[in-house]
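Entry for adenosine-5'-diphosphate complex. Fields follow.
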Amino acid sequence: MLEVKNLTVAFDDKTVIAAVSLRLQRGNIGCLLGPSGCGKTTLLRTIAGFEQPGTGEVWLNDRMASSPNALLQVEQRGVGMVFQDFALFPHLTAEDNIAFGLQCLPDAARQTRIDEVVQMLAIADFRHKHPHQLSGGQQQRVAIARALAPRPHLLLLDEPFSNMDVELREQIARELRTILKQDGMTAILVTHNQLEAFAMADEIGVIRDGGLLQWDSAFNLYHRPSGPQVADFIGEGVFLDGIAISPTQIKTELGVLTGAAPHGHAPQTQVSVLIRPDDIVHDDNSKQTATVRDKVFRGAEFLYTLTLPNGTRILSLVPSHHDHAIGEDIGIRPQLDHLVLFQSDIAM
Ligand code: ADP
Ligand code: MG
């Protein structure tokens, strides 16, 4: 459906997108994830045809849509876009906003499609109201409905949840995923929020300084990060120094950690091992201990910050009925099945 090949975009002499390549299959939802200013909006706008690449190509539906020498017009791309500020027409009702992109349909077909998206996005109660009479969440649903209504080949959403309550975002992202899947839509969502990306996407691209570090499933980003920057950005965790002592074993301050598969580093290589909070199990019977330095209640679990005897900091996710005091020594047991590690000179 979408293929981006070696895309570079610059404004004046400043490179904002650098050599980005990715593919999105029809019916899949992709997500561009990265901190503010890393180039997410620029990449989305380039896919939509608002910006022209300096090098590389954008292909939509087996058709070359953008290159340094050719640019298919925005209206001819079959792309729908939801902008960060929604950009609804203030003088039109919710329903007339939705109807806007359906003018080429005969009356009956247009009304059928309007009713369909009104129902899909639960807009019926306010379909005759104007944008200024709607809450942020309602405006967002109208903006998505308007973009979805003409059945674009590709729907692009730029931080669509950014003015929603933080607690609601994950749930709304999940609901939107269901709606897009029901409608068979291919979509790309831009966000700087990992939980939104995890809730929504089949594939996630981690962007840093205009470069795509990894384009993969959420599971692989978390469990098989391509490098220390992705490991650091996705989820929580710390790096521990280690040294390879056998094809599957690394010696660290936590003891000898054994992976299920060979780690690929020669004996004696200095490495950094990624330790996630779920890799450190609290066990009252373990002889190995660490000191509680901080704890955050997360409902079912506490996230404990612990220090090992020589002061190294690690994190541990512990069922919340184990309520230990700060300063207390508690038993821990590392439980890692596959080791994520990087040679020390490239780790952060
Ligand atoms: P994000 O959406 O990830 O926050 P953007 O794509 O908006 O990032 O911006 C990436 C960088 O490109 C920023 O440094 C921004 O200032 C710059 N930039 C974006 N649009 C333009 C433009 N039209 N002209 C010049 N610089 C731009
Ligand atoms: Mg942006």
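NOTE: The CA atoms of residues 293 and 306 lie 5 Å apart.
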